[in-house]
Amino acid sequence: MVFDFLVPVEDQVLAHCELLPPQALGKNIHKHTQKKGLPVLANVSVAIIGVHESRNAFEKKIEPLDISQIRIQLYKLMLGNWSGTIVDLGDVEEGATVEDTYYVVKELTNALLKENVVPIIIGATQDITYPTYRAFDGIWNMVNLVAIDSRFDFGEADELISSHSYMSKIITDKPNNLFNFSNIGYQSYFNAQEEIDLMERLFFDAYRLGDIINDVSLVEPVLRDAHIVSMDIQSIKASEMGMSPHFSPNGFTGREICAIARYAGISDRVSVFGIYEAENTAQSFQLIAQIIWYFIEGFNFRIKEFPQEESDTFIKFIVPIDDEELIFYKSNLSERWWVEIPSILTSHNKSNSSALLPCTEKDYLEACNQNIPERWLKAYKKGLH
Known about the structure:
Elements: E1 6-7, H1 11-18, E2 30-31, E3 44-51, H2 67-76, E4 85-92, H3 98-114, E5 118-123, H4 129-134, E6 143-148, H5 166-172, E7 178-186, H6 193-201, E8 205-208, H7 209-214, H8 219-224, E9 228-232, H9 254-266, E10 272-276, H10 282-299, E11 314-321, E12 324-331, E13 337-340, H11 343-346, E14 356-359, H12 361-368, H13 374-384
Parallel strand pairs: 2-4, 3-4, 3-5, 5-10, 6-7, 6-9, 7-8, 9-10
Antiparallel strand pairs: 1-4, 11-12, 12-13, 13-14
Helix pairs in contact: 1-2, 2-10, 9-10
């Protein structure tokens, strides 16, 4: 059984946990321990897993990521007004080969998806996104992946998989289940023009760091449509992360990255949340713990809703633009917005979801001013191909 590959939470973490007040997260998480074994998965909402694999790091790691220190900081935080059960399943150690580790991560994620448990994966390197994507094989026909990253991570054409090139493998690997890829927070000077052109050619979505900083709520509809969220911690600015040399002076602040994590948690589609590329600094451990806390906080505010023609919960708006009619829906419950993509297009693609695209009120107002929203246009063009 694949769960047998998991290593229990370290004793030093459990020792710290003993000293915590009863309201602390550490006292309310069911943990995989040497003494008690694995926790039962029945009625579990969220599972924390550490992955120590780092052999495909773009820049070789001098020291392995200390996931236990992240746990210590996470366990110290106070429990929110939450209803779900949280488990910590422990860690996946490096296998004999990198492929062995990928296999274990894929099978673990697949097993948790089948149990409707959302794994929060703390990984040393971002190439672990690849096996989490492959975990959807046979479960979900088309997968939407969102990366919070300063780079697109396509890498060189002939490069084998690394933490800077895993996206190329996801795009080219069979079976090709990737429906859409969105990047949040890219910084132009880190990305070759060819990569930016490739994003355009494949009708993928990319949001500059500056645009998100100006309005962090722009990420909400993007994350609402995501199945996998892969967060590269190096998208956060160096001053927030203990001034590690691998981090850039520009990037998200702690407040912005926690807001993004909360939006990811709120999305009722997000089924895997991965946090990668961290460094061993006290500030880094604390911020990652807070990112996880905000994701779980968002998770506890999930509302399952989808616009329907005959529903009092949604208001329908029809906006004529040129020879098109754009149909928008607004939820009275959450005040979220959707826009319809013509069904003649969606019947040609492999997506098994309805022809509705999450959007913002700003998109609706733009349409009222006779401007077609960019996300709608990309989805429309993608449907034609």
